[in-house]
Structures are given as C-alpha cells and as structure tokens.
Give the backbone structure.
Amino acid sequence: MSKKIGILTSGGDCAGLNAVIRAAVHRSHLLGWEIYGIKDGTHGLLVDPPQYKKLDPNDFDGNIMRRGGTVLGTTNKGNPFAFPMPDGTLKDRSGEIIDNFKKIGLEAVITIGGDGSFAILRKLAQQGGINMVGVPKTIDNDIGCTEASVGFDTAVAVATEALDRLQPTAASHDRVMVLEVMGRDAGHIALTAGIAGGADVILIPEIPYSLESVNKKIKSVMESGRNFALVVVSEAVKTEGGEKYEVEYTDGQKRYGGIGNYIGAKITEATGSETRVTNLGHVQRGSPPTYNDRLIASAFGVRAVDLIAEGKYDRMVAWKNRSVVDVPIEEAIAAYQDVQPDDTLVHTARALGISLGDNDKVK
Ligand code: F6P
C-alpha cells in the first residue's frame, strides 16, 4: 500500500547524513511510497508555509553519498518546547510543528539525530501521535545501544590523518604537538584516533589526569632519544583544577573548546619543550564520509524504511554484530555511552605505552 513518509536531519551535521537520506529515498521508492524531506530539522515545520519537498530517487545517485553535510539542512538550536523568541522569552512551539506535520499528511517520519535530538523528537512524537523511527548519527559516538553511529568513523579518520600530518612537523622541529578533538563529554574520538595515529598521550574526560603524569611521559619520550611527541586532548577535558574550557557563542550557548592551549602551555612550562596546538574543530564533521560510514548509513536508511513498513515505531536502528537491528529509542537515549574504564581501547592504549594521564598501570 502506498505511503507518504517524511525524513529530517537534526542536531550537528556529520559525514554520512546524505547516504542515510539516499538509502531511505531508494527504499521508499522501491516500495512505491512518497518520501518528503523536511528542511532544517524541525525548523522547517515552524515556518509558514512549512519547508519540505518531495525527494526524487533521480536526485539521489551515488554522488550524493560522497558529500558531507546534509542536503536537508539541520539545526542544533531552538528546542521547540522552549523556543527562544526575538523578545528574549521562551515559547512552547511544539503544537505548531505537530500541526504542520499533520497538514502535510505524513504517516511516519525518519529522524536522523543524536541523543539530544531524539529526546526532543520523541517527546514531540508522543505528544502529537506521530509515528517515528530514529537513525543514530553523531561524531561523538555517545548514543547507547548501538556499536556505531553515522559520522564517528569519518571524524576518527580525519583526526588520525591530522596526527599523520602533525608528526612530520613535530619530528622536523623537535616539537610536542597537541591536537584537540571534539566529542563533547565522551572521549571516543580522542581515544580511537590517538591509538590509530600513534599518540604518546591521550587525555579524555572520563579519565582524570595529572599534569605531573603527562609531563613525566613527555620527558621520558624525549629522554628515550625521540625528538617529538604527540598529544591528543578531548575537548571536554578540564583543567587540572577542574575548570571547563568553554566558548560562549552569539546565541548564548556554551560549547567546549580551548583546553588544548592550556595543556600545551603546561607542557612547555614543565618540560621546556617547544609546543604547538591544533584545534581540529569542525573539520571533523564536514569531510566526505569514509566507506564505513557510507555503508552503515546506507544500511540504517534502508532499515528505517523497513521498520515503517513493519509498523514498528518509537524505535532506533542500531548496529550490532555486523548487522542492523532496532531498539526502543527510549533505551538508546537512556544508555548514554562514554568511554568505560574497562574499554578494550583503554587497555590497548595502556599496553602500547600510551599515557592516559593517570597512573597508567597496565593490568
Ligand atoms: O555533537 C557534535 C559536536 O561536534 C561536538 O563534538 C561539539 O562539542 C559540538 O557538536 C559543536 O557544536 P557546534 O557545531 O554547534 O559548534
């Protein structure tokens, strides 16, 4: 039976979003359904007229998969339940979104988001009786109940390549190179890229560090005869005294950023090494997706449509044991996934002699 479904991207962009959209478009077409792309996350439903368009499989050939970003646009601002108005007040605009969704006549919607987006979108879906399925995406890789989220693999590849590119300069100039990476409160990007990129020190928010330990490692590297060292710092790492490094943006929201400069300065101060700091920033989000992100995104997009065909809603597609499965969205939101002390990669890093800034005992 023909259906009319919607798809939107929400939260920060990342590599692989277009591959999800492409897969959902082709799978819907094969089932004889119409699929509509909603512009700019839920913001497309907060304007008059609502911003959406029918997605044609002819516009979604393989080339679109190579592109970073999202052809639908997205937003990580403006919670519809407390939407910032021009007069400075906050207004509940959830009803407008639900009304517009119903006006378009969509039977279900695929939302591609992270845990923050899912919490808001699920509340909207419940309030409006909207059939929703979720596709996990985030470079932070912090969504629970899935072994992979779209965008993480690419972010790690970019961070690893950054280390590959910093190393020659570090070695040529006898320097310590500090690389600050994103990840919000989870250290997955730093830990994964740090191991893959041959870092000497990896600092993540989940493992408290001491500057003494970091500097001891840098000194021991230099004493071993090597003239350079590589340090990876995750953005949510705090100062040794526990202060967060944040930047306040024009919208008043604070985001992490800048801890790399603090760590770099402290290393120079204690070791006398010449240190340079690179803050990788949004470069981690915008590059063409890796093959792995393209594959996961494609499998997720297909399965999301299949879930709608099966009438299974309020679920998130997930990656488990080399397959796509689906889990209740509620469980995925609740099961926030940061780096655990017994993580295989924590043990791997320590066993490789990489300092995590604590006492670095290998069990
Ligand atoms: O959640 C993805 C992420 O890139 C985080 O790693 C980072 O802290 C944040 O978004 C940056 O947000 P913005 O794009 O608003 O600067």
Remarks:
- The domain at 155-284+340-351 is CATH 3.40.50.460 (Rossmann fold).
- The two ends are 58 Å apart (CA to CA).
